[in-house]
Amino acid sequence: MFRNSYDYDVTIWSPQGRLFQVEYAIEAVKFGSAIVGLKNTTDAVLVSLKKASSDLAAFKKKIIEIDEYLGVTYSGLTADAKLLTRFLRNECLSYRYTENVCIPAERLLEKLSRKMHVATQRYDQRPFGVGMLVAGFDSKGPHIYEACPSGTFFNCKAMTLGGRCQSARTYLEKNFSSFPDCNLEEIIKHGLRALQSTLPKNLNLTNQNVSIGVVGADCEFKIFSDEEVYNHLLLIEGENHRPDCDEFDEEDDNNEVS
Amino acid sequence: MFNTVDAYSAPPLWKNGPSPCAFHNFPGTNCENNDFTQHSQAPVTTATSVIAFTFNTGVIIGGDLLASYGSLARYRNCPRVMKVNDNIIMGAGGDYADFQYVKDLVDQKIIEEDCLDDGFKLKPRSLYCWLTRIMYNRRSRFDPFWNNFVVGGIQEGLPFLGTVDKLGTAYEDNAICTGYGAHLALPLIRDALEKNPLMSEEEAKALLTKCMEVLFYRDARSYPKYQIGVITDDGVKIEGPLEVSQKWDLAHMIH
Predict the structure, then answer these.
(1) Would you call A111 an interface residue with chain B, using a CB distance cutoff of 8 Å?
(2) Domains, chain B, ranges and CATH?
(3) Is the pTM here over 0.90, yes or no?
(4) Contact B129 A110 (CB under 8 A)
């Protein structure tokens, strides 16, 4: 990974005009397990793959509720994600305290990206090693936002991050034009299929390792129970959306990331 | 303050020397006790009642243009019905300086929101909540803004009307009057709304005019020139100065 002497500090540019520390942080996002976010015209959906750090450990929670109409899922360093979700919850609460309404997703992302951006500009900090997908609903409809360690954020039709997300990205790119016409059940199915495409052959989606979160016009942000996840998994049972080529190599299991 | 020399204290014992019963300020030093703060305990330049109620398609707020200095009609062109944004109008009674200060805070808030340029606009319920926080915070520091604020607007297609006082006490109602208006105008408005719950804008204006007239005759801190603010789906209108039509030829019959 060591490229040259210009990657020692986030405040040092390389002569090619790159900030290697920031790029390494973006690499850290890929160590986490895959996450998918997508939306139709009324609902935004997050679908995430949960990992257990060992056979003896429980599966880590991957989707976190932030406010009544906001939820996030993350990929990368769990500890960084915990810090950032606590920050997001605080921001939501103080906005709700003064304005009596849920903060619009875009304003929240503005605050989040500012916080993440500061860490790329100071010599005494490191960039956050976490990528986030935020699902929100406000007066402008459902939203999926991607927040990146570099301090930028994107308003997305659909997005995926994390380990082996390339095949999920391919699936989403192939299908996203049909998403606005989908109902909630179909959009969740698309999310599950995209997530399934990231799995190696010997692994399958179960209600243990999948987490689903939904927010919409007439439903506050909700994380599905094991039973609800199971029922939705039944809908795509027997389908296989993994790419034909099977060149996946085993990932190194790093306990600090998920 | 205590122990300072003024026209009523005993003269100094010698020229530039100490005075009896006072702390002595040695020449070249200034150790007067000036590290004090004063909390507001009474309003100074005050505006009287605010009259507000909802009608069929919107909200109407009225207030006269007088800022009194005690019982002196000191400033006679002080508007206190303001447009906040396309969704909100606001009226204020009580200390005029405090109103101007809070108005600046609100205006700045709107500017900051415009700078975000994200298409979201402050809604009346949000401003009402925010004002409640501001007012309650100041009363908790024993330094209240001496005002009654009335916030009106349209939210989710329905008229909204709420008020906050100097203690941060807040409530919503379809008719709100502050100060003397609460005693003189509010019964008239409630009566009219009860008889005609779906009042039109014209009827609302006529009722408000009537209230301003009654208040002008009976409230000694009122003034015949006033403004009204109306908010409907068509937007915000601040009208005025309007004038109460006065009739005093009956006055000599009252003893």
Answers:
(1) no
(2) 45-244 (3.60.20.10)
(3) no
(4) no
Q: Does the distance separating the beta carbons of B118 and A99 come in below 8 Å?
A: no
C-alpha A8/C-alpha A179 separation (Å) is: 43
Q: Is A114 exposed, middle or buried (0-12, 13-18, 19+ CB in 10 A)?
A: exposed
Query: Could you say which of A97, A100, A140 has the minimum Cβ distance to residue B125?
Result: A100
Q: For residue B120, list chain A residues with Cβ-Cβ distance below 8 A.
A: 104, 106-107, 138-140
Instruction: Give ipTM to 2 decimals.
Output: 0.86
Contacts of B128 in chain A (CB under 8 A): 100
pLDDT tens digits for chain A (258 residues)? 555 688 888 888 999 999 999 999 999 999 999 999 999 999 999 999 998 888 899 999 999 999 999 999 999 999 999 999 999 999 999 999 999 999 999 999 999 999 999 999 999 999 999 999 999 999 999 999 999 999 999 999 999 999 999 999 999 999 999 999 999 999 999 999 999 999 998 889 998 999 999 999 989 999 999 999 999 999 998 888 887 655 544 444 455 666
Interface-testing mutation among B114, B116, B120, B164, with chain A (most A C-beta atoms within 10 A): B120
| Residue whose entry in the numeric block shows the structure tokens 């305290």 | A97
Q: Which residues on neighbouring strands pair with residue A143, listed in sequence order? A: A136
